[in-house]
Write a structure and sequence with these properties.
22-stranded antiparallel β-barrel; 598 residues; 34 strands; globular; mainly beta; 3 helices
Length: 598
């Protein structure tokens, strides 16, 4: 799934709250999920209410490329939102392509596995004309999510089963790709997602009971147009409408009438335009302008009904001479808000500069030395500002500064390899005015309180080794060392302690053996110990874990059709672990997939 794939990127931290339908969020170099933008075909996915995107709801089946950009990306022709983010997870939809003179393609897939998991899906590609192609994808997911786990309390060990972890969801999207006679391109997407799930909650003091339910509906429609006027001038425009609805329900005697129901509706209207200008072979400039309107409606008493108006302007310049490349960006942010009731937060204005450099010392060697400085900030979410009595309209934006120094090398140092590639990055990030929930006199309140220093090293290594005729071995791995410490208060007990849920060491390794008769894959994910509270003491420690996954698959040609069969064993060693404290993860499980393409 998407969460498993993102774990293969060095420097990422995926928080998983357990179960097939558990929330999965991604943070880049521990800056927080709100500093990471998820881009779907070049248009960002936003959640102004919570500030983080659940990547678990997106399918990998129709994805051609999944990439992560930390800091500054080479592409100057993108929206200002992407320039303004500390990291961008890019999801690119696979465009229809046809073989053997075909004009359509249909793919039917059924995936099933442990814990009542079943997911049928359908894909159809259609050529509507010489310049127009259509793709439609739909899937249904059902799982009872009732997986066993081991509960340890000192010397007492019991076998339990996860409760209220079921999920049922529907997802569908349609994509239209059209190329005009002047070679300009128009891509349009419509997406819908609906789910109902149980929230299994935390297991504390042997109490696994949970009555919480969550319903989600999300629809968005987006369009992107790109036109190359000349070798010097290129224009790209984007537009999007997004509607999100969710309902949270909890049963309990502590509520009036025995039930608490929260309903939230979000709307976003978004426009972006970017102009790219290349006056010479050495210089490139771009100017990106974004505008967005975000609305939130809740069913709570005295709902403030906030409306946020956002303007983002990004001016970019890049200079390339021989083996030297330098680029700089200046992002100007202006945000103002209106509320129906309560206090209105002050307008927010900020300038965020970025500078990056890449140098190739020797023309004959694919070795690049890189350096980057980037300043970003994240505006408080609607929940930070307005949620019941916890919200605080006086919050300042959370600021982050990134410094990175690294190198990239690729070559063929050994005769038995096709290639070897290596990247090493050292970085230092500083976060100030960190937004956290902090106890006040009677209730918790969102406050600008913390300062965090983050130091780390990311290493990636990949290689391909031919072992014989039509037999190839692909190897890849990454390792991250991260020290994310609280430097807010020298007198505090947690001063210079590692932040909660941040492992100091984690890594991922995978091997794929491709053979004419069968293909074999093996993945190992390693996560070191963490702490679930601010103080790094033994009582707050969460043990590290390693998770193994083995995969077998083969593709068969049947006339002009293809059949792919795949089997997986996830968590091969049946490791019992938690990503989030008191949220046990599944043990060993299996999954079988059959895909028929015609």
């Amino acid at each position: 799934n998407m969460g498993d794939a993102v774990k293969r990127f060095a420097g990422t931290n995926v928080r998983d709250y357990g179960g097939i339908g558990g929330l999965k969020t991604v943070s880049v170099r521990n800056l927080g999920a709100a500093h990471t933008t998820v881009s779907y075909d070049g248009v960002s996915i936003s959640n102004t209410q919570a500030g983080q995107v659940d990547i678990g709801r997106f399918s990998l089946d129709n994805v051609s490329t999944l990439s992560l950009a930390i800091g500054q990306e080479d592409n100057l022709l993108q929206a200002a939102r992407l320039f303004a983010s500390a990291g961008v997870l890019n999801i690119e939809t696979e465009k229809p392509h046809f073989e053997d003179g075909k004009h359509s393609l249909t793919q039917v897939q059924v995936r099933g596995g442990s814990f009542g998991y079943i997911t049928p899906s359908l894909r159809h590609w259609q050529e509507l004309g010489e310049r127009t192609k259509l793709s439609v994808d739909a899937n249904f997911l059902h799982a009872d999510g009732s997986y066993p786990y081991t509960l340890k309390n000192g010397t007492l060990v019991t076998e339990e089963k996860r409760r209220n972890s079921d999920i049922e969801s529907y997802q569908g999207e349609a994509n239209l790709f059209h190329t005009f006679q002047d070679d300009s391109e128009l891509n349009m997407k419509a997406y819908y997602y609906h789910s109902e799930r149980g929230l299994p909650g935390s297991v504390v003091l042997y109490n696994p009971q949970s009555d919480e339910r969550l319903w989600d509906k999300n629809f968005f429609a987006q369009a992107k147009y790109k036109k190359v006027f000349s070798p010097k001038w290129t224009l790209q425009t984007q537009g999007k409408f997004n509607h999100s609805w969710n309902k949270y329900e909890d049963l309990g005697v502590e509520y009036v009438g025995g039930k608490q129901t929260d309903i939230n509706r979000q709307n976003e209207y978004y426009l972006s335009a970017t102009v790219l200008y290349r006056p010479t072979s050495h210089w490139s400039f771009s100017l990106a302008q974004d505008g967005a309107i975000n609305q939130l409606h809740t069913n709570g008493n005295n709902s403030p009904e906030p409306v946020r108006y956002t303007s983002l302007t990004a001016l970019n310049a890049r200079y390339q001479w021989n083996r030297l490349r330098m680029s700089g960006t200046l992002v100007a942010t202006y945000i103002t808000e209106e509320v129906k009731s309560g206090n209105t937060p002050d307008d927010r204005k900020h300038l965020s500069p970025t500078f990056s450099l890449s140098y190739q010392p020797w023309e004959s060697e694919q070795l690049y030395v890189r350096a980057m400085y980037k300043n970003t900030f994240r505006v408080p979410t609607f929940s930070d500002l307005y949620y019941l009595r916890v919200g605080n309209t006086n919050l300042k934006p959370e600021k982050a500064t990134e410094y990175t120094l690294g190198l990239t090398w690729s070559g063929q140092p050994f005769g038995f390899t096709d290639f070897v590639s290596l990247t090493i990055d050292g970085y230092f990030n500083k976060v100030s005015d960190k937004i956290i929930a902090f106890p006040s006199t009677y209730v918790w309140k969102m406050q600008n309180y913390g300062e965090v220093d983050i130091t780390g090293v990311d290493v990636t290594l990949a290689s391909a080794i031919p072992l014989g005729r039509n037999i190839n071995l692909h190897l890849s791995g990454n390792y991250s060392w991260q020290k994310a410490i609280d430097v807010t208060n020298k007198g505090a007990k947690n001063y210079k302690h590692q932040l909660p849920y941040i492992p100091e060491h984690n890594g991922n390794a995978s091997a794929t053996l491709e053979m004419p008769w069968i293909n074999v894959g093996y993945t190992l994910n390693l996560v070191g110990k963490r702490y679930f509270l601010a103080q790094n003491i033994p009582a707050n420690e969460i043990e590290g874990y390693n998770e193994h996954t083995a995969t077998l698959w083969r593709e068969f040609d049947i006339h002009r059709c293809k059949l792919r069969l795949q089997g997986e064993i996830i968590n091969l060693t049946d490791a019992q672990y938690e990503v989030i404290k008191y949220y046990p993860m599944p043990g060993r499980s299996w999954r079988i997939t059959g895909t028929f393409t015609f």
